[in-house]
Each structure stands twice: as C-alpha cells, then as structure tokens.
C-alpha cells in the first residue's frame, strides 16, 4: 500500500511538472502571437514612413529639377528677347535710312545731292544694323537638363527587407559561474562579417528550465558588446538561477534572440532575524546596530509626538508614515542580559556557504560566527559548546581572538576591514578570512550535530552583512591546502570540542 502511494505521488508530481511546463509553453505561445501582431503593425507603420520619406525626397528632387528647367527657360528667353528687340530696332532704322537714300537719288541739285550723300554715309557708318551679331546668343537646346533615371529605377527595383543577422548560439559548456560573476559565451552559426555588436539580456529566476512568461522579473540589457563573450561581475546571487539570451546586430537591425540558457546561481541568502535579537539591538534586514535605549527612547519620543495636542480623537493629519507606531519589541526575549546577539533567519543543514561582515569604524566590540538553535538566551557567542566565533574587542584594550566553549585563542593578525565567513557543514569546518586579501584568519574543526545559524554579537557600534555570495575560488583553493597547515591544526585542537 505504501509503495503504491509513493509511486502514485511520483506520478502526480510528474504530471504536475508536465502541466506546469505545458502551461508555461502556452503562455509563451500567446505572448509570441501577441508579439507577432504588435511587431507586424509596427513594421507596417515603419514601412509606410520609409516610403513616404522616399516619396517626399522624390517630390523635392522633382520640384528642384522643374525649377532648374524653368530658370534656364527664362534665362534663354530673356537673352533672345533682348537680342530680338535690338534687331527690330536696327531693322527699323535701316529701313528708314534705305528709304532716305532712295529718295536722295531723285535730287537734281548737285549741292543738295552731295549734302544728302554725306548724311547717308555718316548714318550708315553709325547704323546699329552693321554692329549687330547675327548669331543667336543662346541656342534652343535643353538637352543639358534631360534626365535618365534608368539606374535609379534599377536601384528602386532592388529594394528589399534588411538582411537580419542569424540568432547566436550560447554554449553552456563555455559559460562559467564563479566568484559571484557569470561569464556567458556564444558563437554565430555561420560567419557574418557585417555584425557590428551584440546585445546580452539576463534576468534572475527561481525556476529551472525555459524562462517563464508570467511572474518573472524584467530582462536587464547589456548593449554594444563587441566580442562573443561577456562577464557580469559583482552580482548578488539572491535567486536560484539566471536566464540569458543574446542577439546580434548589424548597423541597421538587430537579429533574433538566441535560445535562452538557464544557469544555476545558488548561494546562501539570509537576513537578520529581528525576532531573535536582543532588545538593545536595532535590526534591519542585513544591518544590526547597538541601541542602548532598547528602543524605549524612540518609542517615548514617537508617543510624545502622537499625544501632543490631542483631545480625544486623533487628528487625521497625523497619520503619515513618519508617525507610524514602532514595531513591538516587548516580545523579543530570545536573547537578554549581556548576550547582545542576533541570529540569521536561515539554518545551514548541509553544503558549503560563504558570507561577509563589515563593522562600523567606531564599533567597540563584536563577534561573528555560527551557533546551534539551542543557544541559550543568556549565552554569549563562543562561551558555550554550541557556538563558534571570532571576537574583536576595541574597548580598553584591543584584542582579536577565536572563541568556542569558553576557550580563547588570541589571533596575531590585523583585524581586516571585512571578514569573510566560510562554513562547510558536511566537512565540519568554520573558517574566517580577510575578505579583501582572502588571508586565512582562523579555522575551527568540528562535527556539526545539528543545523547552525549565522550568529552576531555587537556592542557600541554596528555590523552590516553581505549575503547571496558564492564561495570564492581563492577560499576553495585555500581549503584544499588548509589541512596541511600545522599551526592552524594544532591550535584548533586546543579549543574545539
């Protein structure tokens, strides 16, 4: 019966997963169909705009050519009209002179005849008819303004859609996820020397397999990538996976997206558990700060503002965000006394994990480590057999030490600006590093018998955390060789259970 139930549960799980895949594919198809309709409409609008632009250019060129022809016509007509007017005047004067000369032939008196002959001679010498050029100043030819658009027509007849680059292919084998960086590599299915650049898009997700259409984050875009690989660095891995896709672009248009690739980006993400903190600690997500008033001073201040000027019903004008009542702190009794402690909200039950801690410059005392859930409310980190930590004291005298089970090992190293914490639950190892140089500060060797929680103690100062980090490659390398470091091993045996 039990085996049949287990088999049925597996079948149900398989069917549910398959239904989920099919629904996601249906959503993808619907989105693609919608995209085809929207993109087709956009492309048609762009096509109309392009042709309207061509028509506009042709109209402008035509208008310019028409003006050129009309101007040439006007110029030649003016020249010919001027020449014609001059010729008509010259002809009129010449005919008048001819008539005068003809009448002069009938003169009988020699003296009058001689006088008329001299006049005719003088007038002929000065006649404009004999100074005219009898050649037209311009021709009637307009061939220099003729056009032949046969070549342009051929170009127009070759108009076609832009050559679109093919979709690149992302090579998962060549992709690398390490040190909170992701290197994505791709190649073109065939050589294309017209490609100008690539566009890489990525987004975080908690779903394996093909990217989801619904309930997903927006794609982030990296543009103008000249090579065929790109590295995203300084990422916070606050999701299980990341989707990647890439497209090629020539100088005119972007091509199709590559098939999306999903890469695993697993890392420990946790926040500080406000409900577990001491009353004298002010906790906000990944920051904790010493609060000597235990919140009472701030509560009194807020209450004073709320009560000021009240007479019965509170004024509606005093309901802004700034006047909201503070969180109830009276129920936070997980730690008390001098155990100024707060724990992380996520238990570590297996695997290797890494996070970093940075203290405020004026922080007088703080501890960083891990603890079992059974850590007592009055217990301080490192003073019981259920917690391991390194402790920094900057009050009265400066000390830097590793602590466990109320045993202390002084550390002869400089306190770093940021402390990296490496926890190998299965290997029973807790190591602390200079987060910048990756120098090993100290290692605990033990066997964890129950889940552990990141733990922090702070007094007169504050701490900030950086989570969602992979174990750095340098730390992994150091872990492989750490067992050969006799100084660390011998000191661990002195304080480790």
From TrEMBL:
Residues 298-309 have a biased composition (Basic and acidic residues). Pfam families: fn3, SPRY. Residues 310-322 have a biased composition (Polar residues). Residues 164-268 form the Fibronectin type-III domain. Residues 268-472 form the B30.2/SPRY domain. Residues 290-333 are annotated as: Disordered. SMART domains: BBC, FN3, SPRY. Keywords: Coiled coil. Gene3D superfamilies: 1.20.5.170, 2.60.120.920, Immunoglobulins. Residues 105-162 form the COS domain. Residues 70-104 form a coiled coil. This is Fibronectin type III and SPRY domain containing 1 like. It comes from Monodon monoceros (Narwhal). The gene is FSD1L.
